[in-house]
Amino acid sequence: MTKVTIGDIDINYEIKGIGEPLLMIMGLSFSLLDWGKKFTELLAQHYQLILFDNRDAGLTSESTRTYTIADMADDAAGLLDALKIPKAHVFGVSMGGAIAQQFALKYPDNLDKLILGCTMAGGTCSQVGDISGVMSGKLEDLLFTHTFIQNNRQELTKFLAETTPLHSKGESLQRQLQAFGTHDTCDTLSSIKALTLILTGDKDIAIPRSNSDVLAAKIPRAKLEIIADAAHGFSYSHPDTTADLTHFFLHQPFNKDK
User: Fold this and answer.
1) What's the CA gap between 13 and 33, in Å, rounded?
2) What residues make up the domain containing 224?
C-alpha cells in the first residue's frame, strides 16, 4: 500500500493484478480490506485492481471539512488521474456505489463499465434499511446471514479483528454519514450511459433489494443480478459468485438498450 496526495487529502491505495483497470470503491466506514482477500485475489487474476480507502476511512487522511458524495467521486477520479489511468471499470458497493453513480455522471469519459453493489439512489426513491450495526459495532448481523455466521464464526472473528481497527469512527464517521445522507440520484440515473451491472444479496437488511430494483429500472443499460442467501457483505461471503458475475459482465456484457 502507498499514498498519493489528491486535493486536500492523502489517499491510501493498493494495486493488485495486471489487466484492464478496475477501480474498487468501498462503502461507509470501511477500508479496502473489507472487500475480502479471496474476492480481490480472484479479480486480480484478470484485472489491474485499484483498491483505496475513502476520505475519513482506513489509512486515508481525515477530512478537514464536510463534503458530498460528488466530492468523493472527485477523489476517485483524482486517484485515477494521479495513476495516469485515463479510463477504468468502476465497482462500488454500498456508499461506494453511491460514489460510483456520481463518478458515472461526472466523469463519463473516464468510465468503461459500471458495477453497483448493494447500493441505492438515495432521495425519495429509496428505502433505507438497518445500518445501526455500523454505529454499534455489531457488524456480523449487518453484513452476513445467520447461517453464514454460524458456519464461519472463527474465520469471521479473525476477519473483523483485522478490519475493524481501520473503520471510521467519531467525527470521521459522522462526516461520511452526512455525505451519504444527502446522496440523491433519483432524477439523474437516466443520464448514466455506461453498461451497468447491479448486484445485491437477497437477504440484505442494510440496503434492501428493492433499492437495486429502482437502479435497474432507472439506469438505461442496466442488468440486475440477485445473489442467493447473501446479505450486505456478499463480496466476502460469496467471493466466487461475485467474482464470476463481475468477470462475465466485464468480458461478455449484455446488450440492453431501452
Assistant:
1) 11
2) 2-251
| Residue whose C-alpha cell reads 471499470 in the numeric block | 89
Dump pLDDT digits (tens) for 38-84: 999 999 999 999 999 999 999 999 999 999 999 999 999 999 999 99
Query: Which candidate, 88, 57, 87, places its Cα nearest to that of 72?
Result: 57
State the amino acid at position 64 in one-letter form. Answer: T
Domain count, the chain: 1
Determine the 3-state secondary structure of 52 from DSSP.
strand
Give all strands of the β-sheet with 222-227 in edge-to-edge order: 2-6, 9-16, 47-52, 20-25, 88-93, 111-117, 196-201, 222-227
CATH number of the domain where residue 13 is located: 3.40.50.1820
Q: What is the pLDDT of residues 107-146, one digit of tens each?
A: 999 999 999 999 999 999 999 899 898 988 889 999 999 9
Nearest CA to 54 out of 88, 93, 87 is that of 93
Alpha-carbon span 134 to 67, nearest angstrom = 20
Other beta carbons less than 10 A from residue 155's beta carbon: 11
* Residue 258 confidence (pLDDT): 40
